[in-house]
Structures are given as C-alpha cells and as structure tokens.
C-alpha cells in the first residue's frame, strides 16, 4: 500500500477531442435512476446537485439518502471514460456541479482551468481518508480533488470453460479464446497492455512500440467478443465470455455471482488508478457539491458504496465496516508485490495522437 507515494508525476495529457452537444441534453433527474426525489429534508442546504460520474459507481440508495438528509435533489449523467467526461466539460457544457476524474485527468483539468478549488473547510470528514492517498503529485495540496476510490485492471477467467492455465495477458491470445473475450473499451488500458507485452511501459511514447502494440492487438481481434467498460462482468456471469480483461471490482462481483470466475493477477503487472471527486469550473451549486463529498466521506456511507461497487476504498475509517471478503480479495486489494509491478497512467504528450490513430484502426 506504499505504492501511491512511490509513483511520480501525473502531468498534463495532450488530447485532441471535439464533441458537440450541451449539458442538459439527456441529463435526467434521479426519478428514474434513484427511485424518485425525496421530500425536502431538515438540512440547511436546498436546491439541486448535478452529478456527472462513471456508470455503475454510485448506489441509488446512497443518492436517495443524501436527498432525504439535505433536501437537495440530485440529477445525474454518466460516462464511460475519463476522456468522454473531459470532452463534454471542455466543450463548454455548463451546469455540472461535481464529477469524478482519475489521477492523470485531474492534472489535465487543472491545466485547462476546468476545475474550481474545493473549500475544504466544508469537509468535516476529510480525516477519514488514509493519508497515503492525499498529497499526490497530480494535486499536492488536494486543492482541486478529493479521493473517492482506487483500483486496478485484472484478468477474469471462467475455470469451468477454460482448459489452459492463465497467468499472463499473453495467454489470452490463445486460439482457445476465439470469440470469447470481453475486454475494456479503453485505449490506454489495451495499448498499455500490448506495450507491457513488449517489455515496455504502459506509458510508452516510441512510435515503433505503439505500432507494434497495434499489431499485437490486431492479432487479438479474433478472440474479442465485446468491448465493455461499463459492466464487463455481465458477459462473464452469463457465460457469453470465457475470460476478460476487466476492472478488479468487476472481477470480484462476477465471482460472487458465479464462483467459477477466478481472478488472475497477470505476471506482467497492470494499470492502477485513483479516482477523485472534482468540481467543474463554474459549478452553479458548489456548496451542494461539497456537502455531497462530505456526505460520501462518512464511514457508514463510504462502506455502503463498497458493498455495491467494491473498488478499493481510500476511506480507512470505512474499512472496519466493509466485508472481510472484499478486503481480502486479490481483485480488489491486490498484494503489494503485484501493485509494485504495475503502473499509473501518466502524460504521454503528443503520443496520444498515435494512440488515437492506432485505436481507431483496431476498432474500425
């Protein structure tokens, strides 16, 4: 667990993205996704909160509890990647009060002046966070970001349908997995894995390495049944996929529903990440956003989130309320020796254009 202090420099990532549309298009209230808005509570705050967050990352009942306790109505939209979130916000979509950004994306948004400073005087529960998750290089004083969850990428394998032993990402290129893999729809993850298979960094910027990674991933295409970053566990549980490259929490949840699904920590190491609450520039309800962050930082609330979405939790005070099975599962809290072989994503500067090109050619 000392790895977060050992990883250096989450700096500006050069991205060329163009997206049309406005914020409120498709932005629904909680009436469909959280079971309806609650009556106004007894709290001093009121009004609305516009939440923009990863899909399958915030339980409906937690949002409803916040509404009941504060009288604040929560509206929310979801996204499937950091880049999708950045594109929407940087294109001028107004009205978001709070979002979630991974480590390197916090730095991007800071550099682009897309974030409001967080008033930490309104966060009475900051002390519940493990100090090792604070003061990271992408935001040394936590002026713009507050830790939410962290995790990694692993291999999930159905032992009942897979005949060979899987220990490495390279094993997934075996013809046994023809048309039976579900993999994350994430260019940094997939190209990063192909980089690792060459003995290079997941953040490699050498055009020759990136081109070779394209060739490696093209060779994987016959085995890929689906790209899915939202809920890859679904295809594992229902038997459509024999194995997958998935988020650690998804591997754990798949194993709960189908005990034949086992987690493999690839011998090459993997990607690790840290997600954070951020407040977009010009947020119309910043105090409500800070109230929501402080609400989430309560141990009981944070532990409740981990029940539904068991990513690794930086809220150390919540750990005594989290099921021991989750705390001890390698897909969620992987051994330190494995994490030490793994990498955070960092700035790849102009090389992002090569990653974009390669990814579009792979998926065309």
From TrEMBL:
Taxonomy, superkingdom: Bacteria
Annotated InterPro entries: SBP, Sperm_putr-bd
Subcellular location, principal: periplasm
Subcellular location(s) of the protein: Periplasm
Keywords per UniProt: Periplasm, Signal, Transport
Keyword presence, Transport: yes
CDD domains according to UniProt: PBP2_PotD_PotF_like
Record carries keyword Endoplasmic reticulum: no
Protein name: Spermidine/putrescine ABC transporter substrate-binding protein
Organism per entry: Siminovitchia sediminis
Top-level taxonomy: Bacteria, Bacillati, Bacillota, Bacilli, Bacillales
């Amino acid at each position: 667990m000392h790895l977060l202090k050992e990883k250096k420099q989450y700096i500006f990532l050069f991205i060329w993205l163009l997206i049309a549309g406005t914020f409120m298009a498709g932005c629904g209230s909680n009436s469909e996704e959280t079971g309806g808005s609650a009556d106004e509570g007894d709290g001093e705050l009121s009004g609305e909160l516009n939440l923009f967050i990863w899909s399958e990352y915030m339980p409906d009942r937690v949002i409803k509890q916040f509404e009941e306790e504060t009288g604040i109505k929560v509206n929310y939209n979801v996204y499937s990647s950091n880049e999708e979130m950045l594109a929407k916000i940087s294109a001028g979509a107004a009205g978001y009060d709070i979002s979630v950004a991974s480590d390197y994306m916090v730095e991007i948004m800071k550099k682009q002046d897309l974030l409001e400073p967080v008033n930490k005087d309104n966060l009475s529960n900051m002390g519940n966070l493990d100090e090792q998750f604070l003061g990271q290089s992408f935001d040394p004083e936590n002026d713009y970001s507050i830790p939410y969850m962290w995790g990694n990428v692993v291999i999930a394998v159905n032992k009942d349908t897979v005949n060979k032993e899987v220990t490495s990402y390279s094993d997934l290129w075996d013809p046994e997995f023809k048309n039976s893999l579900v993999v994350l729809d994430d260019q940094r993850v997939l190209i990063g894995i192909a980089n690792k298979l060459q003995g290079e960094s997941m953040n490699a910027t050498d055009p020759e390495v990136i081109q070779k990674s394209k060739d490696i991933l093209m060779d994987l295409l016959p085995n890929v049944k689906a790209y899915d970053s939202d809920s890859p566990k679904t295809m594992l549980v229902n038997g459509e996929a024999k194995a997958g490259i998935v988020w650690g929490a998804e591997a754990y949840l798949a194993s709960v529903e189908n005990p034949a699904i086992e987690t493999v920590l690839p011998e090459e190491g993997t990607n690790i990440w840290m997600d954070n609450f951020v407040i977009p520039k010009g947020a119309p309800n910043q105090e409500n956003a800070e109230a929501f962050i402080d609400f989430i930082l309560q141990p009981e609330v944070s532990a409740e989130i981990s029940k539904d979405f068991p990513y690794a939790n930086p809220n150390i005070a919540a750990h005594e309320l989290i099921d021991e099975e989750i705390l001890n599962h390698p897909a969620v809290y992987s051994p330190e020796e494995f994490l030490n072989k793994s990498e955070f994503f960092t700035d790849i500067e102009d090389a992002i254009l090569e990653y974009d090109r390669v990814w579009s050619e792979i998926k065309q």
